[in-house]
Amino acid sequence: MRSTSGAGPTQARLEERFALRLMLPSLAVLALTTTVPILYLCWTSLQNINPSMTFMNGFAGAGNYVQMVDDDRFWNSLRLTLIYTTSTVVLQVVIGLALAVTISELKHGQGLARLVAILPIVLAPVVVGLYFRTLILTPAFGMFDYLTVSLGLGSHNWLGDPSLALLSVIAIHTWQWTPFSFLVLLAALAALPADIYEAAKMDRASAVRRFWHITLPMLRPAIVVVVILRMTVALSAFAAIFAATGGGPGTATEILNLYAYRTSFNELQIGYGAALAVTLLVITLATTFMLFRLRRAS
Amino acid sequence: MTTPKSRENRLGEVALRGIGKRFGGFQALDGIDLVIRPGEFFSLLGPSGSGKTTTLRIIAGLEVPDSGAVYVDGRDVTHVSPGDRDAAMVFQSYALYPHMSVRGNIAFPLRMVNTKREEIERQVQQAAERVGIGHLLDRRPGQLSGGQQQRCALARALVRSPRLFLLDEPLSNLDARLRMQTRTELKQLQRALDVTAIYVTHDQEEAMSLSDRMAIFMDGRIVQTGTPEEVFGRPATASIAGFLGSPPMNLLEAKLLPDAIEVAGQLLPLPPGLPAGQQVVTLGVRPGDIAFGATGLPATVELSELLGDSVIVDLRLGGVAVKARSYQVRRFAEGEAVHLQIDPAKLHFFSPTGQRLDPHPGAGHATDGD
Amino acid sequence: MIGRLAGRLAGAATLIVFLGCWTFPVVWGAVTSLKTERDVLAYPPIAAFAPTLANYADVLQGSNSILPNLKSSAILTVATTLITMAFAVPAAYALARLRLRARRPLGFYILATQMLPPIGLVIPYFLIFSQLSLLNTYSGLIVVYVSFSLPFAIWMLVSYFEEIPREMEEAALIDRASRFRAMWYIILPQVGGGISVALVFVFLNAWNEFLFAVVLGGRTVRPVTVAMFNFISLEQTQWARVSAAALIAMAPVILLGVLAQRHIVKGLTFGAVKGVSRQ
Q1: Sign of the CA dihedral A203, A209, A212, A215?
Q2: Per residue in C38-68, is it b (16+ CB within 10 Å) or e — as a string?
Q3: Does A119 sit within 8 Å of C90, measured CB to CB?
């Protein structure tokens, strides 16, 4: 049993002092490099800052936020963020789970599958976006387009057609990160105790029943972990979309963080961009908080 | 390792005064007073959660009590760090350093006080041979058997000739035969080194066989202290009586009549000098104190367990379950009718609240404690 | 019987589809990089061609050489990894194993810093760095890289530190070691595996970083992830060269991935599997 009260002044305090000394450098670095900039971001969001038109600079109060409410492009980006995040996470979990369940039954090839799964994960998202943009999805050139032509589905401008672009970037993100969820769920499946299944088989439960009533509930913690991790990544996904479409065509793939980027660094409206970033920050923290609550409850 | 003569003022006397310890809402220790004499093999015995391990950890310095004080050889060490108490400990899990060899493990405490390398080598070799693992010095703990790991932990503790030798259920991870063997060796080791040993266990057989004296813990309090004979022969409460011995003492409800004892529908002669005024008591009789004869209390056999040199018989005495142990080994048939003979002098009496009732002074004396 | 056979076939088919789908882009990229620009443009794409290393030569030695970018990446990544681990290891030890009243809030704080979307940090950094003349400097960018690597490294290491039985420090303290020596001689040697895993991930994330590099870097401090775009402009895409550059840029991480695959799988699955088997 461990003491939770620091009753002995000398010993417990010495231990605490040692612990703080070990943590202090990291805490100082984090405070300086994250908390300070975030505060500065909030401050910036209350300003008008435009490097190219400095005569417009000045305090704006809540002006940027008011502007945001009426900004259709903002609402568009919010909608796109929602679609992008939920669909990529759902697809990753579903496909990853299906793959994990199927491949975990195989006698041979699991090691190979794990090795192959690592490949997309270690690539830089920007490179993945670039690959897909150039070699895979380019109409009349890319391999995927060639595939659809061969299958009679015709050639399409996968990234340049506003009605297809969002789907394409969702596919790209899903392609890169499904192996992650696959690996996690594969390991989780391997960790499930075998005797429960044997008991279920003796209780004459079918394979589907066993999956639904035993496997799935027992995988729940792992699935929740995957969802939390992938959701935070999806909310801040940048490089792959930037490389594939740059946020376009037009604003067809302009999720919130891309909108914030373009506003700040292409249109040089840094104050407004900061406000958009703050909004994304709030959304991210709120979502994470809710997901943790859900996890605690499970 | 130094010889006993150089112990000088490092005698290893431990005194606990009024120790209290709380974990969150749970009172783990409530007013512990204890004196352990130099060179004693002292056991802390009790069921899980009774506070014996917490007490050991407080002596070691791994926990600090909320109230009370710990004295070692007269010095107040309550807030002194574990490394400065001159106490060595063998953990239940041994806590060997897996990334070091056996040699490295045993040498570690010597390294920490900057002992010279040649001296370290010598002492490590000596300690290892003392516990019989001198040939395993270059192995890693992961390559040793359970018994060998335990010896490694012992060697690491003893290499520094500590003032106090603390052991937290060190035999519980060994199989039964190894446990017996190691028990004897432990006792021999402690005698040879003449070091104060404080031993935590829940196994009353272990405590009985190893200790010079022991303290019995229940619910964070010490309920009896004494030598094995004292504790076994004159348990202070019914709970203690029901805890010690294997099988433990039979505890039966009885009524004291003016000239007899009524128990299980039978009458037993009244031993002399019982305190007056007690009508209902708990009667205690050890299985070994029940003999089988041609006459006596009638009982029926339910089950018998042959243990080779003795037999344990489960009996029904007037509807009450009783166990008896006999060294006249024979098979007992289920349902067999037998007669039990109980020497009234071997009976123990406890009040309805579980306190020991002793015959009046003159017929014996009531003491329990150190 | 047939059910089992069908199941086996389905399983094998899934495996093949899986392997194909996820290896294809990289393999095709490698194939493309060995084609001449002309061969690349052939449509339908040709499988038989005369391979050439000219693209690699051009990408490494030509006017748009990515060699200085590789150097940039190397400096940033190695420095970040070393600094991050130096800070993270003691912090994770303290968080995982020492009694600290503020442990919970501090743990949450570190976790929270990991949740910050990079765009929220890039904007203020841009402003701050421009004012402090830290744009396009290694020191500036390394500080930023460490800031996002540190919380991640700490959390990875904490779970490894927690695996070691509690008695280790106690035994060491009783053996007369100081708290520091207990950490140094007894605990740290036992988390070697965890440190390797964390190291691999920090390295990967630093090497692959893009957003901070593109906004806060410049002409001299430009890792390969940014340099990829050298071969793409509004007028034309130099397909083969892009493929060659991408392959070179990704070679270190792919190599690391293959060599350290056990570490990587362990690191990814550690937290999740603990949750499952704890039930």
Answers
A1: positive
A2: ebbeeeebeeeeeeeebbbebbbeeeebbee
A3: no
Q: Nearest Cβ partner of B82 from C167, C173, C181?
A: C173
Tokens of A12: 């417990």
* Structure tokens that stand for B225 in this block: 């202290």
Q: What angle in degrees, to the nearest 10, is found between the helix axes of B102-112 and B146-158?
A: 20
Tracing tokens 């904490």 back to the chain, one arrives at C158
Give the span between the Cα atoms of B349 and B236, in whole angstroms.
10
Mean pLDDT, chain A, integer: 86
Q: Which of C127, C158, C205 to mutate to test the interface with A (most CBs of A within 10 A)?
A: C127
Sheet with strand B356-357: strands edge to edge: B266-269, B260-263, B250-257, B280-285, B348-350, B356-357
- What is the C-alpha R_g of chain C? 24
pLDDT in tens, B282-326: 889 999 999 888 888 888 999 989 888 899 999 998 888 999 999
Q: What are phi and psi of B223, to 5 degrees?
A: -100, -20
Residue A191 and residue C273: Cβ atoms within 8 Å? yes
Are C117 and A105 in contact (CB < 8 Å)? no
ipTM, interface predicted TM-score of the complex: 0.88
State residue B320 phi and psi, 5-degree precision: -100, 140
Short-list C150, C152, C156, C250, CA closest to A122: C250
Residue with tokens 């106090």: B164
Quote the distance between the C-alpha of residue C160 and its chain's center.
19
Q: C185 and B108 in contact by Cβ < 8 A?
A: yes
Flag whether residue C120 sits within 8 Å of chain A, measured between CB atoms. Answer: yes
CA distances from B286 to B202, B209, B246, B323 (A): 20, 18, 9, 8
* Contact assessment for residue C73 and residue C223, using Cβ atoms and an 8 Å cutoff: yes
Per-residue model confidence (pLDDT) at position A5 = 42
Chain A residues within an 8 Å CB radius of C211: 238-239, 242, 261
d(Cα B356, Cα C25) in Å, to the nearest integer? 85
What does the DSSP assignment read for B13-30?
Answer: -EEEEEEEEEETTEEEEE
pTM of the model: 0.85
Q: Which residues contact A148 (CB under 8 A, 6 or more apart)?
A: A154, A155, A156
Joined tokens for residue B188: 């021999």
Among candidates B61, B98, B109 on the partner chain, residue whose Cβ is nearest the Cβ of C175: B109
Confidence at residue A140, expressed as pLDDT on a 0 to 100 scale? 73
pLDDT digit string (tens) for A115-167? Answer: 899 999 999 999 999 888 887 777 777 778 777 777 877 777 878 888 888 99
Q: Are C33 and C240 in contact (CB under 8 A)?
A: yes
State the distance between the two ends of chain A, measured CA to CA, in whole angstroms: 27
Q: Which one-letter DSSP state was computed for residue B215?
A: E
* Contacts with C187 from chain B: Cβ below 8 Å: none
Closest CA to B193 of B134, B131, B105: B131
- How wide is the angle at C-alpha C33 spanned by C-alphas C27 and C34, nearest 5°? 100
| Residue B324, beta-bridge partner list | B313
Which run of H or E residues covers position B199? strand B196-201
- Residues 10..39 of A with a Cβ closer than 8 Å to B: which? 10-12, 14
Q: Look up residue A196 and give its DSSP letter.
A: H
Return the ∠ at Cα B172 (arms to B167 and B175), rounded to 5°.
Answer: 135
Q: Which of A3, A4, A8 sits opposite B79 (nearest CB)?
A: A8
- Could you give the CA distance from residue C194 to residue C191 in angstroms, rounded to a whole number? 5
Distance CA C56, CA C66 (A): 10
Q: What is the SS3 assignment for A255?
A: coil
Contact B168, B45 (CB under 8 A): no
Residue A228 near residue A288 (C-beta atoms within 8 A):
yes
Q: Count CB atoms within 10 A of the CB of residue A90.
A: 13
Number of neighbours of residue A283 by Cβ within 10 angstroms: 17
